């Protein structure tokens, strides 16, 4: 997005965006703009919906419980969809929102909570995860929103991997793997679809680790000689993938 628009508040909307359209904001977005940011009618904002790029818009009408945007002109084209699959064992609130926000900022295309033996949080609220995604997208000018999948147990995930993911390789962040050059570990996957799997704070169980290493689509990767917390490991792994075979090049 041109930096000229960076000062304007960004807001996610559901409907299609096109010049001249009037878009009614949902209660959350309206509340955020009108009651939290205290914006007045006439103010410029940038609207995006994850499909149509970013649009300079004007707050046309601001009520306590609703607001309307007048869509003016496109200021950024829709960015390409990311094909990076990101699987993680859900963490407690506080770290979970951090993890989902960082995955969004780092360009994950699919966010998949995976339940493992030592996963502490087993019931997730899809709308909460979506909200973390939107928060990060609004803050960081992410236009291509990752899809949040419903949680799945590790075993069925691996059993159905080939059927659902085709040739995608799964980079399994394995703190037991001997530390070695990430370029060697990941570089050969250039141009191939990949996923990243990060374990819970307690790590994977021995049985799970064995099961993972048995799969021909699993590629164990080390994130260096130190044990990282799961949320740090997530950012580190996404950094490696984006820089070696992803969109940082
Ligand atoms: N096994 C430890 C720590 C788990 S760290 C324990 O019992 O507490 C949480 C997750 O982060 C791990 O499952 C792994 O996926 C990832 N991780 C942390 N440090 C790592 C490293 N040095 N290399 C690869 N993955 C790592």
Structure overview:
By secondary structure, the chain is an alpha/beta fold. It has two domains: 3-76, Hypothetical PUA domain-like, domain 1 (Ribosomal Protein L25, Chain P), CATH 2.40.240; 85-244, Alpha/beta knot (3-Layer(aba) Sandwich). 30% of the residues lie in helices and 23% in strands. Helix 2 (96-105) links the parallel strand 6 and strand 7. The two termini are 19 Å apart. S-adenosyl-L-homocysteine is lined by residues 173-175, 198-199, 201-204, 222-224, 226-228, 230, 233.
Tell me briefly what this model is.
With 249 residues, this protein is an alpha/beta fold. 30% of the residues lie in helices and 23% in strands. It has helices spanning 27-36, 96-105, 126-140, 154-159, 161-165, 182-186, 206-214, 230-244, and strands spanning 10-12, 22-24, 44-48, 54-62, 67-76, 85-88, 110-115, 147-148, 152-153, 169-173, 194-198, 218-221.
């Amino acid at each position: 997005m041109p930096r000229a628009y960076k000062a304007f508040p960004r807001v996610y909307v559901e409907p299609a965006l096109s010049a001249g359209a009037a878009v009614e904001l949902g209660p959350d977005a309206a509340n955020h703009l009108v009651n939290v940011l205290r914006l007045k009618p006439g103010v410029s904002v940038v609207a995006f919906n994850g499909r149509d790029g970013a649009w300079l818009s004007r707050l046309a009408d601001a009520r306590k419980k609703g607001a309307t945007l007048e869509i003016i002109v496109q200021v950024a084209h829709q960015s390409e969809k990311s094909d990076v699959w990101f699987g993680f064992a859900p963490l407690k609130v506080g770290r979970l929102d951090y993890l989902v926000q960082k995955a969004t900022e780092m360009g994950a295309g699919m966010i998949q909570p995976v339940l493992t033996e030592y996963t502490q949080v087993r019931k997730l609220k899809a709308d909460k995860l979506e909200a973390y995604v939107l928060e990060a997208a609004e803050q960081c000018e992410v236009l291509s929103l990752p899809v949040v999948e419903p949680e799945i147990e590790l075993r069925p995930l691996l059993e159905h991997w080939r059927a659902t993911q085709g040739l995608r390789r799964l980079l399994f962040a394995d703190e037991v793997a001997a530390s070695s050059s990430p370029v060697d570990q990941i570089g050969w996957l250039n141009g191939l679809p990949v996923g990243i799997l990060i374990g819970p704070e307690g790590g994977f169980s021995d049985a799970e680790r064995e099961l993972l290493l048995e799969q021909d689509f699993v590629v164990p990767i080390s994130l260096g000689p130190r044990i990282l917390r799961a949320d740090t490991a997530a950012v580190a792994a996404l950094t490696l993938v984006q820089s070696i075979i992803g969109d940082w090049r």
